[in-house]
Amino acid sequence: MFSKFLNMDKEKQDRIINAAIKEFAQKGYDNASTNEIVKEAGISKGLLFHYFQNKKQLYLFLYEHMIDILMDKIMEKINWEEKDIFVRYRQIALLKIEIYQIYPEMLNFVKSIYKDSSPAVKIDINSRGKELFESSFNKLFSDIDLSKFKKGIDIKKAINIINWTLEGFAYQMQEKVSSLSLEQIASDKTMEEMEEYLEILRDSLYE
Amino acid sequence: MFSKFLNMDKEKQDRIINAAIKEFAQKGYDNASTNEIVKEAGISKGLLFHYFQNKKQLYLFLYEHMIDILMDKIMEKINWEEKDIFVRYRQIALLKIEIYQIYPEMLNFVKSIYKDSSPAVKIDINSRGKELFESSFNKLFSDIDLSKFKKGIDIKKAINIINWTLEGFAYQMQEKVSSLSLEQIASDKTMEEMEEYLEILRDSLYE
Amino acid sequence: MFSKFLNMDKEKQDRIINAAIKEFAQKGYDNASTNEIVKEAGISKGLLFHYFQNKKQLYLFLYEHMIDILMDKIMEKINWEEKDIFVRYRQIALLKIEIYQIYPEMLNFVKSIYKDSSPAVKIDINSRGKELFESSFNKLFSDIDLSKFKKGIDIKKAINIINWTLEGFAYQMQEKVSSLSLEQIASDKTMEEMEEYLEILRDSLYE
Amino acid sequence: MFSKFLNMDKEKQDRIINAAIKEFAQKGYDNASTNEIVKEAGISKGLLFHYFQNKKQLYLFLYEHMIDILMDKIMEKINWEEKDIFVRYRQIALLKIEIYQIYPEMLNFVKSIYKDSSPAVKIDINSRGKELFESSFNKLFSDIDLSKFKKGIDIKKAINIINWTLEGFAYQMQEKVSSLSLEQIASDKTMEEMEEYLEILRDSLYE
DNA sequence: GATGAATGAGTATTCATTCAT
DNA sequence: TATGAATGAATACTCATTCAT
Question: Which of A2, B116, C180, D76 has a CA positioned 20 to 30 A from the CA of residue D173?
Answer without folding.
Answer: D76
